[in-house]
Write a structure and sequence with these properties.
It is a single chain. By secondary structure, the chain is mainly alpha-helical. It has one domain: MFS general substrate transporter like domains (Growth Hormone, Chain: A), CATH 1.20.1250.20. It is built from 17 helices and no strands. The longest helix is centred in the N-terminal third of the chain and has 29 residues, at about 90-120. The protein is globular and about 50 Å long.
Length: about 400
């Protein structure tokens, strides 16, 4: 029973990643067909992110009231509905309309699943599960590339992903009884490294438990620092996902369909990196994973800056930046119970999701505006700045935790 639920959570993480890279992969074609400026991609992602911020902040309250299983199933169903709406949208305002339920669904399930895994599993599981997010996010540009080259158009790619989400929604609904049963038992054959003991698990947010006010959470020492670090990282990740294809096509002269496929190098780096990190995450520790990750992102950004006609070094830079990005997100999430206490973890993780989507809201459109003024060549410098910010705030958090 426990293994079945774990498999479903893995599949749910794939569903989290599937829609995330579709806009960026298809935007070079979408903005021309919709007759809107290139920079409008930032507006669309902003609408999505506003919904995710709202639902992330509400996630703790919803999960305590209804349970993680119900929140996950409803949220995935909302994203499936929204993606179908995208396929029928023939104007930009319709895309923005359907982006609202997509954002609301994405934020709630993200916070609920991340907290569940942070409380119940070792660091390697967090990395492997987020690797599955990368599987979904890496597949989407390939789906978009195939749809563009086969004549299905960008809407065909959204239809394929929407159908996948519908199937997952059905699976999650059928699996709802498992969540309650698993929460009341300790799985046989697993040691403490695999899952916390039942006394500690009793501190995890359960349906009907009391809500922790936002103002109270923000007063906890170090919370603002982890929010700033998460803001910087997720701004970096989402700016790369959204603009890598446009950067390759606009600044490097790569054909749009080819650029969409090549941009998956960043996501493939994330996916592969998280899979590998799972084997040594418990030995290296969350702090070293975060620190080393930001350093590798910086190296990848420097490789993107090298002005060569051949695109090999730039593509390798995208892959290395993705590889460096791989352990940062899961390590920040997994370290939350240890840094701030298990009873505070869901409230803080919910706010972290909000900070993440705030970075996703503000920074990709900011890059869109800046690139329209200065040029797409700014892309690598933008990533380097965000990586430096993430490193600074995470190191300050480490010093504060050590001083307690």
């Amino acid at each position: 029973m426990y293994s079945i639920l774990l498999a479903i959570i893995y599949i749910a993480f794939i569903s989290l990643g599937l829609p995330d890279s579709l806009v960026g992969a298809g935007w070079p074609v979408m903005h021309r067909e919709l007759d809107v400026p290139q920079s409008f991609a930032g507006i669309l992602t902003m609408v999505i992110a506003v919904g995710t911020i709202f639902s992330s902040l509400a996630s703790e309250r919803l999960t305590r009231k209804f349970g993680a299983g119900v929140v996950t199933a409803i949220s995935v169903g909302m994203t499936a509905t929204a993606l179908f709406g995208f396929t029928f949208s023939d104007s930009f305002w319709m895309l923005c309309l359907w982006a609202i339920p997509y954002g609301l669904g994405a934020g709630a399930v993200d916070a609920a699943l991340n907290n569940y895994v942070a409380l119940h599993y070792a660091a390697r599981h967090m990395n492997w599960l987020h690797s599955f997010w990368g599987v979904g996010a890496s597949i989407s540009p390939l789906i978009m590339s195939q749809a563009l080259t086969s004549g299905m158009g960008w809407s065909g790619a959204y239809k394929v992903v929407a159908l996948i989400q519908v199937v997952l929604t059905v699976v999650l609904v059928l699996a709802l009884p498992l969540w309650a049963k698993v929460d009341t038992m300790r799985p046989k054959g697993l040691n403490r490294a695999e899952v916390e003991d039942s006394t500690e698990n009793s501190e995890a947010p359960q349906a009907g438990a009391s809500h922790i006010p936002l103002a109270q959470v923000l007063k906890i020492p170090g919370v603002l620092l982890v929010l700033a670090a998460f803001f910087a990282y997720c701004a970096l990740e989402n700016t790369s996902i959204l603009w890598a294809t446009t950067y390759l096509a606009g600044d490097r002269g790569v054909a749009p369909a080819t650029a969409a496929a090549f941009a998956s190098f960043f996501l493939l780096g994330i996916t592969g990196g998280r899979f590998l990190a799972g084997f040594f995450a418990d030995r290296i520790g969350d702090r070293n994973l975060i620190r080393g990750g930001f350093i590798m992102v910086g190296l990848g950004g420097l490789m993107l800056l090298i002005p060569l006609e051949a695109n090999g070094v730039a593509l390798a830079g995208l892959a290395i930046a993705g590889l460096g990005s791989a352990p940062i997100y899961p390590a920040i999430i997994h370290s939350t119970p240890a840094n701030f206490g298990r009873h505070n973890s869901h409230a803080i993780i919910g706010i972290q999701m909000a900070a993440a989507y705030l970075g996703s809201t503000l920074m990709p459109p900011l890059f869109g505006v800046l690139s329209s003024w200065v040029g797409l060549w700014l892309f690598p410098l933008f990533l380097l700045l965000l990586a430096a910010m993430g490193m600074l705030f995470s190191e300050r958090l480490n010093r504060l935790v050590d001083a307690k």
